[in-house]
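REVIEWER CHECKLIST
Item 1: Sequence provided? yes
Item 2: Single chain? yes
Item 3: Sequence as submitted:
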Amino acid sequence: MAGEGDSEPGKSFKLLGFLDVKNVPCARESVLYGSLGSLVMGLGHFLATSRVRRSCDVAVGGFICTMLGYWFYCRFNLAQQRIRQRMLQEGMKNRILYEGSYLDPEKEQTGSEKSDS
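Item 4: Structure as written out by the authors:
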């Protein structure tokens, strides 16, 4: 009874029954920015025209456009970050592998070492 409102560590929040806001990257921010865009566009249209129904339509359209726009922007940046992270991990692995050998690109070879190899 007392713990009914407490959130469990493994429990997640699903929006519309399928969008897991906690575990899907960029979902939370997209919904938040979409709601803010909806508020701004709907209120702005209402202040400009004083048409309630059309302002609600503009607000829904603003929500969809803002949410999808930020979703694609965030996912693109996330993919770029993962690519850079993968390249960095590969570079670190190669550095550990080649460190101290003659294949080490950071090892400076003098003239006598070049003639020996």
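Item 5: Key structural point noted by reviewer: The mean pLDDT is 81.
Item 6: Recommendation: ____
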